[in-house]
Design goal:
heterodimer; A: about 425 residues; alpha/beta; Urease, subunit C, domain 1; TIM Barrel; 13 helices; globular; B: about 300 residues; Rossmann fold; 2 domains; five-stranded parallel β-sheet; four-stranded parallel β-sheet; about 35% helix; about 15% strand; Aspartate carbamoyltransferase (chain B); pyrimidine biosynthesis (chain B); aspartate carbamoyltransferase activity (chain B); Asp/Orn_carbamoyltranf_P-bd (chain B)
Chain lengths: ~425, ~300
């Protein structure tokens, strides 16, 4: 089976930009053709897709999502998460290990990959736990998990509190050439906080979490990256101090990368009103100054990646007193439209956005997702023009916990192709 | 003027005219408490649920006495005796309460915003009797009532507030209320007890206890929460009392006709010395007396309609 996608602007930063046709043979890209090239002939085993008006980009990757399976299938399953990812334009996601049981051994990794294969949505790259049970005391069998298919390790959801264990984990992972995803949070500074420390928290009487709770751990792990030479990737960076530290570390040649999430460049703690727990996430929505620093960090390249930190929770876990409600929001189906606002507001070029949502995530995971012959046909098609309103009732994710309901957006995922098959969109 | 609000959730959402109406109404109610028969039929047939999910003695009793003086039927439920102890959520508990058709739910809860969440779900009136560290509107209103009664007005007064501002719902409600009514509010505490951006509520932060109480017309002392000592907010009660305790030397720095207040319960010898607490400037017990009248006024305004309190 061969497929020809024609009419789209093909944008693969550093590789291709122009109106090209992509010829796909089975699961792989066979050729990238100019409109003037002689097109292959039609046939019974040949399909032509007219993608005029769309932008075709390398498969978008969300390197920070929670799929909740095994253990919390009432919030999300690998199948619903992979479908939500595909609907959001993602061809691949990294599944964080804080499931029940924790993905800290190759059996759980194999289970996740088996479920993902059956799901037929976006690809799932499991992330293994750094320590057994993510308890922060004993290293997991990282190499065994790597052989089973993990692409990174993280104790996400909580920090590796003990600096010595973190040092050893980094040394070990350096030897395996696997990145360590860091949830940077000093729990003693969080101290029961539920939103950003600042005037809105003071006014509403919600215990605050200072920026330093994130930044002191970023500082520690930059130093440990320097000590060990390991690749540290900071998850969900939210505040100015962390971005300043990472910028400086990069200038010094330390092997650090980082991500932020759409809510940190879209909302601030001033948006947390009426004790609505859909505005409760960890790290919390920060001040306007931090939001601007996140945008600046994205623009100047300090922030490599936009990831959603998709954290589905059931209604029961959110429909509670603010301090008792769960942290986290869903993001797979809103990440691309919210990120496109950065382009509409001239903070990023479209090319730069694709770097942060497709190319850099792949690079961090050691995956080549160039649009080039021989690579798997993992492609995202984006409609930049379609205007709409974010409507959680239409999410294919099992959960609806988003603060963006009713927000007007422009642009969306039009179609998503994994291994040569459309898993979402008009032609799916 | 008619009071049109369904709920009393915080001070922020009341405008000065509404606050004045509440205080005026409370003064009328106070007279009822001074009669030999301290009961009027105003809220006869109304049901008031006292839903206290956090320990409270004086506030709960004050709301209960207020309800009885207006002839309302009051029922109290506590956390230990409610289905909350069996794991039922707040929303479920409250929907069940509402199904029994109360007219007013008075609510105390350890989580900030809990009264908001409930008020948005139920059709009956909700009075917030303290939510987390967010608001305690009836306390702030009775404090304003007491000051107005003593000083004649609130406008132009200097209010000094000393103590754990960060963890005090009384502090937040008092700062907002008194500044809204034209007082100048100055707060003072160890830096560990001053929350980020407190000035935005309408106060200034004094550099020292002496600067805070200088020329003050009203000194409001807040309780040191001994259970928070583990949070390393201050090294010892001894050191705290030395720096931030109210004693007669510090009272002497204030306006000669100063009024001393405390929402209670007091830690004698820590934030306030006994001679000051029991001294001639203290109106700590008047606050308690006024509390009943003020809460009667709140019931009347949210549940009694426009009728006069003493008719029917």
């Amino acid at each position: 089976m061969r497929t020809l996608i024609k009419g789209a602007r093909v944008l693969d930063p550093g590789n291709v930009d122009g109106y090209k046709s992509i010829l796909i043979n089975g699961q792989t890209i066979e050729a990238v053709l100019d409109p003037a090239d002689v097109m292959p002939e039609n046939g019974t085993d040949f399909k032509v897709i007219d993608a005029t008006g769309l932008v075709l980009v390398p498969g978008l990757m969300d390197i920070h999502v929670h799929l909740r399976e095994p253990g919390h299938e009432y919030k999300e399953t690998i199948a619903t998460g992979a479908a939500a990812a595909a609907r959001g334009g993602f061809t691949a996601v990294c599944a964080m290990p804080n499931t029940r049981p924790v993905n800290d051994n190759s059996q759980v990794t194999a289970f996740i990959l088996g479920k993902a294969k059956a799901a037929k949505g976006a690809r799932v790259y499991p992330v293994g736990a750094v320590t057994k049970g993510s308890a922060g005391t004993q290293l997991s069998e990282i190499q065994d998990m790597q052989q089973a298919g993990i692409k990174a390790v993280s104790d996400d959801g909580r920090p590796v509190e003990n600096a010595q264990i973190m040092r050893r984990a980094l040394e070990y992972c350096r030897g395996l050439s696997i990145p360590v995803f860091v949830h940077a949070e000093d729990l003693s500074l969080v101290n029961g906080g539920a939103m950003n420390e600042g005037p809105p928290a003071t006014f509403q009487g919600i215990p605050g979490i200072p920026n330093a709770a994130e930044a002191v751990m970023v500082a520690r792990d930059i130093l440990l990256s320097r000590l060990t030479g390991a690749h540290v990737h900071f998850c969900h960076i939210s505040c100015e101090e962390s971005i300043d530290l990472i910028r400086k570390a990069k200038h010094q040649g330390i092997r650090v990368t980082c991500e932020t999430a759409p809510h940190y460049f879209t909302l601030t703690d001033a948006d947390v009103k009426g004790y609505d727990a859909c505005f409760k996430m960890n790290p919390p929505l920060r001040s306007e100054k931090d939001r601007q620093a996140v945008i600046q960090g994205l623009a100047d390249g300090t922030i490599d990646v936009i990831a959603s930190d998709h954290a589905p929770h059931s209604k029961e876990e959110k429909d509670l007193e603010f301090d008792r409600a769960a942290f986290g929001i869903v993001g797979l189906e809103t990440s691309l439209p919210l990120s496109l606002k950065l382009v509409q507001n001239n903070h990023l070029t479209l090319e730069n956005l694709i770097l942060k949502m497709a190319k850099n995530p792949a690079k961090i995971l050691g995956i080549n997702n160039d649009i080039t012959p021989g690579n798997p046909a993992d492609l995202s098609l984006i409609d930049l023009k379609e205007k709409g309103v974010i409507d959680p009732s239409r999410f294919v994710s099992k959960s609806r916990n988003t603060p963006f309901a009713g927000m007007t957006v422009q642009g969306r995922a039009a179609a998503t192709m994994v291994d040569g098959n459309f898993v979402f969109g008009l032609w799916a | 003027m008619r009071f049109t609000k369904k709920d009393i959730l915080d001070i922020h959402s009341l405008d000065p005219a509404e606050i004045t109406l509440i205080l005026d109404t409370a003064m009328g109610m106070k007279e009822i408490s001074q009669r030999p028969v301290k009961k009027v039929p105003t809220l006869r047939g109304k049901t008031i649920v006292l839903f206290f999910q956090e320990p409270s003695t004086r506030t709960k009793l004050s709301f209960e006495i207020a309800a009885k003086r207006l002839s309302a039927d009051s029922v109290a439920i506590a956390k230990s005796g409610s289905s909350m102890a069996k794991g039922e959520t707040l929303m479920d508990t409250v929907k069940n309460l509402e199904a029994m058709k109360p007219d007013v739910i008075v609510m105390r809860h350890a989580s900030s915003g809990a009264a908001y969440l409930v008020a948005n779900r139920v059709n009956c009136s909700v009075i917030n009797a303290g939510d987390g560290i967010h608001a305690h509107p009836s306390q702030a209103l009775l404090d304003m009532m007491s000051v107005r009664e003593k000083k004649g007005c609130i406008k132009g007064l200097k209010l000094a507030m000393i103590g754990d501002i960060a963890h005090s719902r009384v502090a937040r409600s008092d700062i907002i209320g008194f500044s809204k009514m034209g007082a100048r509010v100055s707060v003072c505490a160890p830096q560990t007890m001053i929350p980020a951006g407190i000035e935005a509520l309408g106060c200034t932060v004094a550099s020292s206890m002496e600067a805070c109480v200088a020329d003050a017309d009203v000194i409001m002392m807040l309780r040191i929460q001994k259970e928070r000592m583990t949070d390393v907010l201050f090294p010892s009660e001894r050191e705290y009392a030395g720096r931030f305790g109210l004693n007669s030397q510090r009272v002497a720095l204030a306006h000669k006709d100063v009024t001393i207040m405390h929402p209670g319960p007091m830690n004698r010898g820590v934030e306030i010395s006994s001679d000051v607490a029991d001294g001639k400037y203290s109106m700590i017990l008047d606050q308690v007396t006024n509390g009943v009248a003020l809460r009667m006024a709140l019931y009347y305004l949210v549940a009694g309609g426009s009728r006069h309190a003493d008719t029917d």
